[in-house]
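User: I'm preparing a small set of examples for a lab meeting where we compare how different chains pack in three dimensions. I only have the primary sequence for this one, and I'd like the structure in token form so I can line it up with the others. Please keep the answer compact; I'll paste it straight into my notes.
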Amino acid sequence: MFVFSKEQKTYRIGGARIGGQPGENPPFLIASMFHNKDRILQDRKGNFDRQKATDLIRKQEELSVATGIPSMVAMVANTAEEAQIYIDFYLETTDMPFGIDMWVAEKRAKATEYVAKLGVQDKFLYNSITPWDKDIKGQVSRLKELGIKHVVVQAFDDKDQTPAGRLKSLEALMAQGAGDFDSVIVDTSVMNLPATSFSLIANRLIKEKTGLPCGGAYSNGTHMWKESKEMWGIEGFRAMDAAAQGMASVLWSDFNFYGPIVTAPRVFPAVATAHMLLSTLVYTETQVIPDNMNLPIRKYFPDFIEKLIAGAARK
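Assistant: Understood. Below is the structure token output for the 315-residue chain.
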């Protein structure tokens, strides 16, 4: 169920390792900052509470070290000029990888040019090449000219919203050059909470066929379900969000766009817990716990692993 016969690709993005067989590496957690309604944001001209922004980044760094889960931030901007301000701040503040979240391709291209100008392509994750882009081949060509190395490819088919449709969409994008980069990770397009299952199954299908790292913006499914707060209150919403983030991390996800960085204190423990369960699920198939010392199970339950290994040796 969890072990693929196809060789699984692993990449390094700004020092963070992503991909591989399920359980081989912790999932890569990607936070959002400067999104609409972000409380640190003062306007869309690049003014924000720098101290609070720094504190949020420091908290994510702390959780990342404690759990072994690698992480980065995707910064939302409406213009290239706004994006430049956030990029400068981020690079002054942390060594984590980063991305820019901009829906309009032309503006995203301008922000990417600034990344290239700074020469920080090694730690930049381009998000993303999508089925809705008008000139995918042109976009790929320009990205390669700029020396972009790591990209997200978003897989979704409006006419076939099944897991198989997502695989078909990815194949179409790859045929247009979307895979011609050092690192390619596949976002299987979460549309709502229950449909998240389609994305998770698509992760499995794509990993089976291509070996590429897969994941999704699972926060899309949880944060768009506004009624959950009305029914269950804020604590109920937080529980629902943590459950979805953790479950997705078990089911063939190499990365997770987990939503606002302010939610890190609940998401990291939820994902770490889920990954520990994944480790023992994989163990039942392989009789192996990978040697990766960043695995949450190795950080929190080393004595249990020693017992497993000793038991296997006696058999």
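A couple of notes for your slides: The longest helix spans residues 227-250. The chain has one domain: 10-314.

User: Perfect, thanks.
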